[in-house]
Amino acid sequence: MFALGLAPAIVGRNITLLFATPILGLFSWLVSLGTGWMIGGQIGPRLGENFRNVKAEAVGGAIGGLIPVVLIALWGWYMITPR
């Protein structure tokens, strides 16, 4: 939920900016939850099959689940920087 407010909080040096857009943060959290679950569910088992290791499957699923969160944080950073 904080990915979108992370960039304004860093640039403004104000921790309260993490909560500046609560509805948009909740919406991005819900989108990231579903999308990350689907991406992680696709990447994890494929890495597990390739490496024949359960740990590789777990790591692949976790990294795949973080992809939407990172993309939303980068989008928030793009929106706050001047062009």
Which helices and strands appear, and what pairs or packs with what?
Elements (H helix, E strand, L loop, with lengths): L2 H10 L9 H30 L2 H27 L3
Characterise this structure.
The protein is an all-alpha fold. It has one domain. Helices cover 81% and strands 0% of the residues. The longest helix is centred in the middle third of the chain and has 30 residues. It starts with a helix and ends with a helix.
Give a brief outline of the structure:
This protein has 83 residues and is mainly alpha-helical. Helices cover 81% and strands 0% of the residues. It has one domain.
Q: Average pLDDT, to the nearest integer? A: 91
Structural class: mainly alpha
Radius of gyration: 15 Å
Global shape: elongated
Strand content: under 5%
Would you count the extended β strands for me? 0
The percentage helix is over 70%
Intertermini distance: 26 Å
Key terms for this structure?
83 residues; mainly alpha; 3 helices; 0% strand
